[in-house]
Amino acid sequence: MENFNDDRIIDTKNRVFYSNTFGMGRTNPRSLHTNSNHVYRRTGKSQIEDIINCGYVRPKLKVNGGHKKEVFWSLGGENLFYFDGSPILEVPTDKLIDGQMGALFIDDLSAIWIFDDKQNMYVNKLEEIKTIYYASHIESVQSKGRSI
Q1: Is residue 104 within 8 Å of 96, Cβ to Cβ?
Q2: Rounded distance between C-alpha atoms, residue 103 and residue 8, angstroms
Q3: CA triplet 22, 24, 29: central angle to 5 degrees?
């Protein structure tokens, strides 16, 4: 069981970057298209597992470089696409602003995009991941006053 008093939950600083990319991946049929009403985070399977374990999007315990306790996001838009198959987290812009303190809870996410090789496209697995999280943390969540 994960420690809900982890200081990374309280001390996380969320950073949102406004990308002026050239639309790499625009024509790739595997691409996840983004929009300016959401911010996105390219991540890995270890962070998805951490979300299942604790319910929060938080930084790694050990980080190389000077960005300890920071989680980086990119504002979506017509030139931001994801196409490498990495998991992608999505949050509405009204739930996250640049410099916001505190790790986001799983209920703040609007999508967890996982690439499905059989379908050759990204599929939103948020509800499945939330089901797994809540099934294994029902007592902890209820003690924190959250409804399931």
Answers
A1: yes
A2: 7
A3: 140
**Confidence at residue 139, expressed as pLDDT on a 0 to 100 scale:** 66
Binned at pLDDT 50, 70 and 90, residue 127 comes out as: very high
d(CA 94, CA 16) in angstroms, rounded, equals 12
Cα separation, 46 vs 98, whole angstroms: 24
Q: Per mean pLDDT, which of 23-27, 40-44, 139-143, 144-148 is the most reliable?
A: 40-44
Sequence-separated (6 or more) residues with CB below 8 Å from residue 23:
78, 79, 81
Three-class SS string for 22-53? CCCCCCCCCCEECCCCEEEEECCHHHHHHHHH
Residues 6+ apart with CB under 8 A from 65: none
Q: Where are the domains of the chain?
A: 7-142
Tens-digit pLDDT profile for residues 54-103: 999 999 876 666 667 899 999 999 889 999 999 999 999 999 999 999 99
Q: At which residue do the structure tokens 């703040």 appear? A: 108
